[in-house]
Amino acid sequence: MENKLTTTKRNIWNEVRESLILCGDVGEFKNSIIHNEDIPRLIYKGRAVLSDNLFKKFNLSNNVESDLFSVIYQGMVIAASLKLELNENYSVIFADCYCSIKFQRSENKSTQYEQVYFSKKFISMFSLNNKWDVKEKNLKIFIKDMYKTICNWQNNPFLHKEEIDSFKEELHNI
Fold first, then answer.
1. In sequence order, what are the beta bridge partners of 49?
2. Average pLDDT over residues 88-115
3. pTM score, two decimals?
4. How far apart (Å, rounded) are the C-alpha atoms in residues 36 and 34?
5. How far is CA 60 from CA 35, 47, 101, 144, in A?
6. pLDDT, tens digit, for every residue of 28-62?
7. Which H or E run includes 44?
8. Structural domain boundaries of the chain?
9. Tell me: the pLDDT tens digits for 108-155?
10. Of 62, 13, 55, 10, which Cα lies nearest the Cα of 36?
11. Which of 7, 97, 126, 156 has the greatest number of beta carbons closer than 10 A?
């Protein structure tokens, strides 16, 4: 029988996994995909940093609207991105963009333009009030397109800079 901590990790992982199914198969949840230690990093030794303490605190409130839940979710998306062969930098960019859309808030200042870039695309395809449903085909397609764009950026950092610089220019001209 699974304990509550493992069940929580597995449930969150399965939701992330379902949303990324068109990007590739990230597999079943295993504790080995995360680094279980309280350290001030997102990634350590090639694994997302998510300590059991975070999950224990979340289980006390079970509040999926909390900042704590978004931190846990971001870590799981980073872990999945690493399994999908994004490097550490682009795994963080992908997770920040994914979570900024899911939780409707900015996750990290260093990726704010990327977050707005994809949020704008999301809002134009859906709406600001779209309910996040990982089983929805159009959401999966959007996530796959976002993933492909970020893969292209990883493979061609100049393209990343060019697209974001162009987007910044577009924002300044509004």
1. 35
2. 93
3. 0.95
4. 6
5. 22, 25, 25, 33
6. 999 999 999 999 999 999 999 999 999 999 999 99
7. strand 43-44
8. 4-172
9. 789 999 999 999 999 999 987 888 899 999 999 999 999 999 999 999
10. 55
11. 97
Show the tokens assigned to 120.
């704008």
- CA torsion sign for 72, 77, 83, 85 is negative
**Distance of alpha carbon 99 from alpha carbon 69, whole angstroms:** 10
Among positive and negative, which fits the CA dihedral 144, 148, 110, 38? Answer: positive
Compute the Cα dihedral for 130, 136, 141, 147 and give only its sign. Answer: positive
| Residue whose C-alpha is closest to residue 53's, from 36, 34, 67 | 36
> Which segments of 50-125 are extended strands (E)?
none
Nearest by Cα to 96 from 121, 120, 71: 71
Burial of 110 (0-12, 13-18, 19+ CB in 10 A): exposed
